[in-house]
Amino acid sequence: MLQVIPETDSPITHSMSSNDKQGGIQATIFLKRCESFFHYDIFEEDDEEFVYLTSSNTAEFFEPFFLYKNNALVMSLGVYLELLRFMKDSWPKIYKNIQDKIFLLKDYAYPLKLAPNISFASNGHVVYERWFDHCFFFYYECSKDLPCTKKLIHLQIQNISIQLEPDVLYNMSLQYETLLNILVRAGYKYRGPFQEISQFDNALN
Asked: Which positions ≥6 away from 173 have C-beta within 8 Å?
């Protein structure tokens, strides 16, 4: 069987291009720092694989790596893979739960119970937060949002953040197994999933 396998120091790109309706997302993955991509950078050698995550607006192309790398969200490859696994396995159910709660918020005839003996019947919003190691995941949706309001996932590491369209990230997550298989063949030592910390899981159940 004929196979093409990247060298360990070859950047691997995982992306979904924008179209006339939604933006795009691009992840540039480094199993090992490539001198041609970091020729002018001063860095110490390390063994941790990492990912540069960026996005593009509707109907826009991605910038070349050397232009966006200083503004990209940089995370470990383990965190990126766990983010994809979460989007593939858990996000559809969570998102449906969010939509069910938004639907209830819009129906003033049925007050929403917040706690024993406490309820309200008006507009409100649903927030979902989760930590993937050092990466903060945040999603917000309000019952007053118009149908044209774009819903975005906010990812942040320290003072760098990025806004991603949930549908695009979910579609990318469907390639999780294929991407992991390529990475392992290229020399990545998969360490297995880690436990994410969710702030609002109980509220959404």
From this structure: 83, 84, 85, 86, 87, 88, 91
Q: How many domains does the chain have?
A: 1
Q: List all residues 6 or more positions away from 154 whose beta carbon is below 8 Å from its beta carbon.
A: 136, 137, 138, 139, 140, 161, 162, 163
Listed residue (56, 75, 6) closest to 163, CA to CA: 56
pLDDT tens digits for range 129-147:
999 999 999 999 998 888 8
Residue 1 maps to a domain:
no
Q: How far is CA 92 from CA 87, 89, 118, 202, in A?
A: 7, 7, 29, 16
CA distance 104 to 112: 7
Distance CA 205, CA 14 (A): 32
Tell whether the torsion through CA atoms of 176, 178, 182 and 185 is positive or negative. positive
- As a whole number of angstroms, the distance between CA 90 and CA 128 comes to 13
Contact 102, 143 (CB under 8 A): yes
Q: What is the pLDDT of residues 61-113, one digit of tens each?
A: 998 888 888 889 999 999 999 999 999 999 999 999 999 988 888 877 677 78
Of all helices (H) and strands (E), which one includes residue 97? Answer: helix 91-106
User: Is 145 strand, coil or helix?
Assistant: coil
User: The domain containing residue 70 runs over which residues?
Assistant: 12-204
